[in-house]
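Worked example (supplementary).
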Amino acid sequence: MNSDLRSPLNRARGLGSAKSGVHHFWMQRLTAVALIPLVIWFAVSLVMLSGADYGMARAWLSSPFVMVLLILTICIGLYHGQLGIQVVIEDYVHNEGVKLALIVAVKFIAVFFGLAAIVASMRIGFGG
Amino acid sequence: MSVANRPVHRPLSPHLQVYRPQLTSTLSILHRATGIALSVGVLYLTVWVVCASGSYETYAKFQAFNGSIVGRFVLGGWLFSMFFHLFNGIRHLFWDLGYGFEIKDAYRSGWIVVAVSLVATAISWIVGLRLI
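After joint prediction of all chains, the assembly is encoded as:
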């Protein structure tokens, strides 16, 4: 006799009431771990770069090593950020329509800024 | 009175107006607040890269804002937010692994996070401004 009220299929799927299982939780932790070395690198770079003029900033941004790490920092940061903002919206916005619209808007903004960062970074690096 | 009609006294969520702030709850709120600030900060970081990919004049406008009083205040806030969210985030990851849940440990790790964040912010600010 199954004491769990959930059906065996439901348990096997493991999606729960969130309808997406632990995906949100797991991605938030995975991106958090990835961001630890990236943010430390970025903080050190920021301090070294402070006071840099246009030429110095561009020279730094055009290094392939910096391009890779900076694009990773921004894109993983945006992904981690939109996951967090989604939780804040879910906690405080109780109108289903408004909640959905805000979450979709946050995700669109994240993708837009992520692509903008990649294009701008490549434009500097590849001399556009 | 039947069991079904008996009033249920479930624990209430803390009412912030009458709740004495504790280190643990304050840092929890601060983690969310700095997370929101950093979500805006990463957008601003993107604006920086976009401005750098543009003309000298575009970048000069961006730099002028950063150098203003408001700009310095905002950048300083982001710097502290970045360190606090980083160190408190590591504290959260240890909790996720099941460590540090004893009240004594939660307070100790909390104070360490506050101290390290403030020191890291101060050092970055001082070294960045070429004061040492």
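Two points are worth noting when inspecting this output. Residues 27-125 of chain A form a domain with the 3 helical TM bundles of succinate and fumarate reductases fold (CATH 1.20.1300.10). The first helix of chain A runs from residue 8 to 13.
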